[in-house]
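Final report, closing paragraph on structural work. Over the funding period we assembled a curated collection of sequence-structure pairs, and we close with a single example.
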Amino acid sequence: MNKKHKTLRRYRTEWWGLILGLLLIGSLLGLDLYNAYQETLQTAQARLLHNLNIVEINLSRRMQSTSSALDVVREEIQAGKTNPSAMNPRLSAMVAAQAGVRTMAWIDAKGTVVASNRRELVGQNFRNSERYTIIRQTADPGVLHLSAPYVTSLGNYSMSIGKMVQGPQGRFDGYVLAILDAEYFSVLMESILYAPDVHAGLIHSDGQLIFRAPDLEKVVGVNLAARPDSLFNRFVKSGKDKDVISGMAAATQVERMVAFTFIRPLNVKSDKALVASIDRNLSVVLAPWVRDLELRASLFALIAGVTIFGLYLYQRRHLAFELLEQQQEDERLAMEKRILQINADLENMVQQRTAELEKANASLRHLSRHDVLTGLSNRMAANERIHSEFMRMKRTGSRYAVLMLDVDFFKRINDTYGHEAGDHVLKRISDVLKSCLRASDFVARYGGEEFLVLLPDTPLEAATQVAEKIRQALARSTDPIAGVTTMSIGLVVASPEHHDENVAVNEADARLYQAKKTGRNCVVAA
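Its predicted structure, as stored:
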C-alpha cells in the first residue's frame, strides 16, 4: 500500500512538471509572436510613412511654388505694370512653367475674369462662386485660399488656390487664381504604390476625398468628415500633423492600416490644407505573421500532444512493469522479448538517423559549391573548374575562353530600389546567362555582382559572339522593378603558354575594367 502511494505521488509530480513546462514554452512562444507582430506592424508603418513623405515634400513645394507665382502676378497687378491684354500671354507662360497647374486667372473686384491663359474664361463672371465670397470676406492678402473640391468637365475632382489683390486703402480689389491639374495628382500618387494592396488618397481638410489610386471601390467624392467613425476623423481629432492609424475604413468597410499627413505650403499661411494618405490592407500586412502563428501553434500543439501522450504511455508502462514484477517467470520472459523488439526498433531508428545525416552532409557539400541566391556555382567551384580546364589544356592543347561579367551601376540599383530588388536583378541575370550557354559551358557567380563564364574548346571569335549574345539578351530584358539592366564583359582565351590558371582570369578581369572605362554595356576581348 505504501509503494502504491509513492507511485501515485510521483505520477502527479510528473504531470505537474509537464504542465508547467508546456506553460513556460507557450509563454515564450507567445512573447516571441507578440514581438514579431509588433515588428511586422512597425515595418509596414515605416514603409507607409516613407512613401507619404515623398508626397508631402512634393505637394508642399508645389503649393509653395504656385503661391510664389501668384505673388508675382499680384504684385504686377497692384503696381499697375501691366494691362489685361498683355497679361494673357504672361499667364500662359507661367502655367507652362508650373507643373501641376492647369489654369491661372485674374478676377477683378466684381468677379469678372480680366485675364487668363485660357481665353474662353475672359469676361466670365464668378461673383456667385464660393471662392469669390470667401476671399472677399476674408480680405487678407497674406492668406492662401484653398477652395473646396469640385468636379471638372472630365469628371475628375480638382481644386484652386487663390490670393487676394489689394486695392487702395487695402480694400478687396479682386484676386489671382491657380487651378490645380488633377492629372498631376494621379501621376504623383500612383508613383508611391509599391504593392497590389496599397492605395493612396488625397483629402481636402474639410473631409472630401479628392483622389484615390486605385479607386476600386468608387469612393472618390465621399465626405469622410461626415462619418464619425472614419479613420480620417480619428486622425484630425488626434491633433497630430502625421500619424498611422489602423481600423475599419468607413468608405470601404475594410480593415486597413492608413498613414495620414497634413500638407500645407511652406512659409505661407493658408485657410485650408490637404491631407495625403497611403494605406494597406491590414490582413495582407499581417498575412506572413498569421502564417507563422499558425505554424508555431501547430508545432506547439504537436509537441504538447506528443509529450502528454508520451507521459501517459510512460506511466502506463511503468505501472505495467511493476505489475509484471509480481507475475510468473514466463510473463517476465515475454517482457524480455518485448524489450528485444524495442532494441531492434531503436537500432532501425539509429540507422535511419545515420542515413538522414549522410543526406544532410551531401546537401552541405552541394551548398559549399553553389551560390544560395542564384543557384549558380560559387567562386570555390569556379576555381576548381578553372584548374581542371587549365590542366586539360596543358595535356591536350585544347584552349578555353574566360568571360568576366559585371553588372553596370549595381550599387545604384541597391541604393535606389533596395537590396531585395538587387537580389531579383541577380537572379534574372543568372537565368539570362544559363539560357545563352551550352550544356558544356560553365557559369558561376564570382562575387557580388560579378559573374564568370568558361567556354571549353572555344576560339576567340566564337567566344566574342557568345559574350555579345549575353550582353544583348540582358539589354533586351526588363526587370519589373529596376528596368533595363546592362553588363560589361571582359574576354580572354587561355593559352598553353600561360604558367598559371589565374593568368587568363586576371587578363579577363583587366578587359572588364577596360569595358567599364569605355562606357559600360560592351564587350572587350583580348
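The mean pLDDT is 87. The chain has two domains: 14-300, 379-525. We thank the funder for supporting this effort.
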